[in-house]
Amino acid sequence: MAVSAASRAWRLSPVDQAPLRPLDPYASASSGVSAGHLDAVKPVGRVRVSMIEAYLRANKMFVDKHEPKTERVFSSYLELDLSEVEPCVLGPKSPHDRVPLKEMKSDWHACLDNEVGFKGYAVPKEQQGKVVKLDFHGRPAEIKHGSVVLATICSSTNTSNPIVMIGAGLVAKKAYELGLEVKPWVKTSLTPGSVVATEYLKHSGLQDYLNQQGFHVAAHGCATCVGNSGDLDGSVSAAITENISLLLRYCQPTETSRGRVNPLTRANYLASPPLVVAYALAGTVDIDFEKEPIGVGKGAKEVFLRDIWPSNQEIDEVVESSVQTHLLIQESVRLHHGTQILVVALVWRLEFMYTVS
Fold first, then answer.
1. Strand partners, 98
2. Contact 168, 202 (CB under 8 A)
3. Phi, psi of 304, rounded to the nearest 5 degrees
4. What is the CA 138 to chain-centroid distance, rounded?
5. What is the 3-state secondary structure (H, E, C) of the chain?
6. pLDDT-derived band of residue 49, with 50, 70 and 90 as boundaries?
7. CA Rg, the chain, in Å?
8. CATH code for the domain defined by 3-83
9. CA dist 120 to 267, 276, 287, 345, Å?
């Protein structure tokens, strides 16, 4: 039996809905389209919005909040109180394991204690607090169970959502201004799902702050999340293999398979882009963001997550000024024409093509 997406979906903006929509097929749901969705695609400049709306209305697929509710027929109804939604991460072994952010520290310690399973590693008590000191290219560092060694903002629907991408940039900016920087043992990268994301981050000036924190653009599309993260630094790899068997990556792709991104990371978590930056700054998941500081900044002042977390207004102001129509159209045109490298490299002989349009 098919289940339609919630009839009040228009109250969420299209960009906020985008990360949720890929989950629809798992619930055998069809995604409704509203006027807000059509407004969202108008800036792209390559779709006939009026034609799409006419088609959707003719096929009873258009959600119009002004029409009588009796006109809408659903096979099932689900209600969600958005006021009860709270920040969460997923992991450490399965994307189905949701952990409220405020419970992350206690959940991590429980995972260390629990028997080996989806939520357990059975690490002996005497080994859980073991600290390994190392010289990271002249900088003193130390890692232990729960240390984040790989943090990446990966290609997915979220990296095409300007709200969370701008949010990540603002977290990096605020942290830099307060004197915080990503821990030296954390390997960082940024692989947006769209070149447009890179362009508006540059236009807003936030990419400079992401670069300062080590989140340089490494590629576009699937890269780190499919295992192309590259090796960890030699000193970190040696410390893990010789002393500690359980380290972490914090990332934002669409799965949490153990060792998929790097064989040395047995615990893996998914988080929003701003939280990926926050955990890279903390360098560990063994932290309660509500009660413990991420680090010590300028003037020996403790800095908490709340000090670097941007407000909705701050994010909206940057989105309004930096996510511009001409960027979307420009990259759309470039996508179809390709780069000079692609034009030279991909010269296909007609007889080798499967289809010819």
1. 90
2. no
3. -105, 165
4. 31
5. CCEECCCCHHHCCHHHHCCCHHHHHHHCEECCEEHHHHHHHHHHCCCCHHHHHHHHHHCCCEECCCCCHHHCCCCCCCCCCHHHCCCEEECCCCCCCEEEHHHHHHHHHHHHHCCCECCECCCCHHHHCCEEEEEECCEEEEEECCEEEEEEECCCHHHHCHHHHHHHHHHHHHHHHCCCCCCCCCEEEECCCCHHHHHHHHHHCHHHHHHHCCCCECCCCCCHHHCCCCCCCHHHHHHHHHHCCCEEEEECCCCCCCCCCCCCEEEEEECCHHHHHHHHHHCECCCCCCCCCCEECHHHCEECHHHHCCCHHHHHHHHHHHCCHHHHHHHHHHHHHCCHHHHHHCCCCHHHCCCCC
6. confident
7. 23
8. 3.40.1060.10
9. 10, 23, 19, 48
Q: What single letter denotes the amino acid at residue 43?
A: P
pLDDT one-digit tens code per residue, 138-183? 888 889 999 999 999 987 666 678 899 999 999 999 999 999 999 9
Kindly report, residue by residue over 236-268, the tens digit of the pLDDT: 888 888 776 555 555 544 445 566 677 888 888
- C-alpha span between 35 and 49 (Å, rounded): 10
Does the fold of domain 88-315 match that of domain 3-83? no
pLDDT digits (tens, 9 = 90+) for 172-203: 999 999 999 999 999 999 998 888 899 999 99
Domain boundaries, the chain: 3-83, 88-315
More confident residue, 114 or 79: 114
Q: Do strands 139-144 and 131-136 pair parallel, antiparallel, or not at all (unpaired)?
A: antiparallel
Structure tokens at 85: 């939604």
Q: What are phi and psi of 347, to 5 degrees?
A: -100, 100
Q: Which listed CATH number (3.40.50.300, 3.30.499.10, 3.40.250.10, 2.40.100.10) goes with 88-315?
A: 3.30.499.10
Q: Is 26 exposed, middle or buried (0-12, 13-18, 19+ CB in 10 A)?
A: exposed
What pLDDT, on the 0 to 100 scale, is given for residue 288?
Answer: 97
For residue 326, what are the contacts with CB-CB under 8 A and spacing of at least 6?
none
Provide the mean pLDDT of the chain.
81
